[in-house]
Structures are given as C-alpha cells and as structure tokens.
Amino acid sequence: MASEGKKLFNIIILGVSFMFIFTAFQSCGNIAQTVITNLNSTDFHGSGYTSMSIIYGVLSASNLISPSLVAIVGPQFSMVISGVFYSLYIAVFIQPATWAFYTASVLIGIAAAVLWTAQGNCLTENSDENTIGRNSGIFWALLQFSLIFGNMYIYFAWQGKTHISESDRRTVFIALTVISLVGTVLFFLIRKQEDTKAPGDDDSTNEILGESSSARNTMMRAVAAFKKSITLSFTKEMLLLSVTTAYTGLVLTFFSGVYGTCIGAVNKFGSEEKSLIGLSGIFIGVGEILGGGIFGLLSKKNRSGRNPVVMLGILVHFIAFYLIFFNMPNDAPIAPMEGTDQVAYMIPSKEVAMLCSFLLGLGDSCFNTQLLSILGFLYSEDSAPAFAIFKFVQSICAAVAYFYSNYFLLQWQLLIMVLVGFFGTITFFTVEWGAAAALAARGSDYSSI
Prior knowledge:
It is a single chain. With about 450 residues, the protein is mainly α. It folds into 2 domains: about 10-190, Up-down Bundle (Growth Hormone, Chain: A); about 235-435, Growth Hormone, Chain: A (Up-down Bundle). It has 15 helices and no strands. The radius of gyration is 22 Å and the shape is globular.
C-alpha cells in the first residue's frame, strides 16, 4: 500500500508540474499571434503560426532520439531540463527579437519531445493495468487546469482592450515565465521507485565493473530505445493508433492557436474581442478537466472499455465544428490586425463561441485520456518508445496544421479535421477491440482498463 501511495503521489506531482508549465505555455500559445500582430509595426517580424509550426516540426523529428535521451538522463532530470527551455521560450516575449523568437522555437521543439517522452515513461512506471486509466485521468485533469488559470488572468487583464501595450505584454510574460519555472522545480519532488532486485544480487559485480560498465550499459539502453522506437512504429496497433493521434494533433493546433485567433479577429464582438480569447481558453479548460475527471477517475465503473468515450469525443467535436462553421467568418484565421467585419451564416454569438470552446475541450479530453490509457496498457514494457511515437505523429500533424493555418480559410480547416477524425475513430475502435480480446484471453476483467 505504501508503494501504491507513492505512485499516486508521483502522478499528482507530475500533473501539478505540467499544470504550472502549461499554464504558461498554453496561455502563451493562445495570445502569441494576437500579441505578435500588435508587434509587427515595430522591428519584430515574426509569426505565431510559423513559430508553432517550427516547434511541432522540430518536436516530431526530435522524437526519434528522445527515448535514447530519456534512457541516458532518466525521466525526472529530462523533465527538469525540458522545463527550463519552456521557460526560456516564454521569456523571449518579454523583449521580443525575431532571431531569438525562432531560435527558441527550435529549442523548445527538442525540449518538448524529451518532456512528453519522459512523462509517458513516468506515467507508465507508476501505473499498472488496473490503475493506468485512473492515473491517465488524474494527470490529464490536473494538466488541463493550466487552461483555466492563465486564460482567467488574460480575460480580466485585457477586458475592453483592442490594443495590447508593451506594458501589458511584459507584465503577462514575466508572470508566465515565473509560473513555468515553478512547475519545473516541482519535478524534483517526484520520488524514484525502489529497485526490485534482491539486495545482494549484482552489487559486488557492479562495484568491480565500475563506471565504465555503467556508461556502456547506459549507451546500450539508449541504442535499444532507439531500435525499439523504429520497431514499434511499424506494428499494426501503432499504425492504426497513429491515425487517431494525427487527429489529436490537428485539434491541438485548432483549439490552442487558431480558434483563439479567430475569436480575437471578429469585430462584431466589439471591445470584448481580445478578452474573449482568455474566456475561450477557460471554457476549453473546463471541458478538458470535466472529461479527464469523468473518463479517467471514474474509469473503474466503465464496463464498456474505451470505445464509447472516443465515440462521445468525436460526436462532441462534430457538433462544435458545425457550430463554429455557422458562427465564425471564414477569413477569421487569416484576418489582418484590423480584424474582420465579415459574417458567416449567423450574427457572431459570444455564447455560441464559448459553447464551442467547451465542446472542443471536452472532446479533446475524450481522445487524449483514452490514448494515454491504451498506450500505457499495450506498451507497459516499452513506454518511452511508445509515447515518443505518439508525440512524433501528434506533433508533426500539429506542425502541418500550424503551417496551413497561415493560408487556409476556416471552412477548409474544419473539413480536414472532420475527415481525419472520422477515420481516426474507426482505427481506434479496431485497436481497442484487439485489446479487449487480449484481456479476455488472459482472463482479466475488461472494465479494469
């Protein structure tokens, strides 16, 4: 029981640490394009969409080596180092320079790959097949509180403002940098699991071999982790789950960057258009937390497995996409600094916009909690490579989406998500049915997942 209590403590610390870091980073992502639009009349000539495209492009490539890096450094220290780079990226906005902005985008892409691989490794190490669903839900719910706190500040601080001043920008990003550093320090509280071998098994041998053997073993683990990533990439289950993961990457781009920009560009919202970006983030966070709580913490009472949750997620998202299509002007994602006066198929409604934010968050939590759960279940022995592949696919699709967000009208972005989401749901169902069959063969209770 003591060991189980320690594992639950680690999951909570993991979630709280990510909550602080992503309170800063996701708030930064939500307002980056809006802030940069106000900066582009100065010497700064960056693009928030381009920056996020670089981040997710580098992240996807870095996932090829992140399992090896985590194997060498260890998951805890990997997360600490990554958290420092997240803080540096946010700090760039305090006194923006184009070269620093894009350099930091590259560095945080590498750091993100390591961070999320280490997170998956830590989550799996502190879970078993009976607790992976619960722990995934706890982690996801705590993480998504990040959407509440940062955006709540933005909503109240920017209420009634149509232009973001230099003072406003510096105040926000100094605060966000400090918050990110707090989350980084909290990683040190994660307790290491005890070595399960018998007390005298290999101690004398290890003393004789010394540090050279330790270094050689570390390198062997790194090489093995890389080879395992390549092998897992081509398994049937991982290829099928990659379609679902690709959809989460597209949705991540949409709700973390594009949708907030759309809301901030609609002139029909009047003087509230900028503060509504923060309010939208809050509603997304409420949806994420509610989904994490219901589908993670209450997973033990779900006797039907993961498929109904994913089905609910895609239905919720389709409703949100339909309402956004009717409520938001088509040119909102690519509108100039002056915003857009166009109207879609209805007069833009703040209430409908916030409802869609909630639905986007709820649907996203349905997909992500179940993906975390099924990856931890299927690849409990190879968690670092499995989660690296997951982030590789998710981030490369996010990078592609951020790139085309510079050019595509809203209707085409929604259509792409509908098509990928439909096929991603089908492929998830296929893998889940296989997991249920494997559990049945082992005589385990399907509801335990």
